[in-house]
Amino acid sequence: MKILLSGYYGFSNAGDEAVLAALLAHLSERIASPRFTVASGDPAGTEQLHAPTSQKYFLRGVRRNDFKGLAAAMKSADLFISGGGSLMQDVTSVRNVAYHCGLLRLAQFRRKPSMMYAQGVGPLRQNLSQKLVRAAASRAAVITVRDEASKVLLQQIGVRSPIQVTADPVWGLVAQCGGQEDVAQDGPVWCVSLRSWPGDEEHTSRKRVAATLAVLRDVAMRRSAHLRFLPMQAGVDDVLLNSLGVPAANWIATAGIHPAKIMGATRSCQIMIAMRLHALIFAASQGVPCVAINYDPKVAALARALHIPLLEATDCSQSAKLAAAIDAAVAPSTEQLAALAEVACSNADIARRLVRK
């Protein structure tokens, strides 16, 4: 069985690599001897990071802008999956939407079964983006989304096909021990995942993040807590931390580390305070209480679903509000985590039924 996977892979983003790791694990557990081709920004890096530890599957990468190679892979594929993550959004660029919709339309032109797999859709601010997504999604064989807001948005822009709300694939990823968990401290460890504020100029964004960090340090000092930092996007979050003077010794290593090991490293934390969506999922899946910082609707949606404290941008500069959010944070129940993992894995069950039709 040949499966072509597309997503934001090969860009050293731990969250998106976790999505790919979950896809590979879940699909290979349900489909005999699958042969995966992954569209990637770094094909060799993808092959190395996600190399199978057993003979469960075969994996090769193809450069995501190698359109001749992608066309050849699509021609021989039995299934095309437009993978999880925030692929259908135009915050970064309309080109992002055009790329992912273009691959879906190519699959449909080739009469290949195509699946939108647990995607988070939106924002779609431009009319062109909405038209592209409507055309591609309406002809997909199956659509699953990771949250209700994505389903509502697709329906609002005119997608009339059935849409099933499942869960982010990473909820079903099994954490691994990576040697970063055993950090002896004489007080609680708070894990922090920060990123730049979208839409701001670099200087303005850095000032806002610096203000948030100052408040975090103040509250942590008063609680005798130690801060560990989780840079989810290599070349972005680590650069930001360096610019803020955060020593690398206080980071959880992520560059070149398998996402299941990064997830496992969050077990050592007593709380996760994060802007990044998958930093929250990593920690919550390990039973760690979380506080979310609202930089994007997807983070707010997760906070509502898990009933975790959500700090708005203006709250981050107020020690009292941060301290109150930390006090209010509780870990998800084992029952809730089990349900999320089951629903996350159901995406692969849906894909398996699609190729057996």
How many structural domains in the coordinates? 2
Rg calculated over all Cα atoms: 20 Å
CATH superfamily of the largest domain: Glycogen Phosphorylase B
Distance between the termini: 13 Å
Globally, the shape reads globular
Order of helices and strands: EHEHEHEHEHEHEEHEHHEHEHEHH
The third-level CATH topology of the largest domain is Rossmann fold
Q: What's the CATH class label of the largest domain?
A: Alpha Beta
Low-confidence stretches: none
Strand portion, in percent? 5-15%
Compute the number of helices: 13
Strand arrangement, largest sheet?
3-2-1-4-5-6-7
Secondary structure class reads alpha/beta
The whole-number mean of residue pLDDT values reads 94
Strand count, sense and barrel status of the largest sheet are: 7 strands, parallel
CATH architecture of the largest domain: 3-Layer(aba) Sandwich
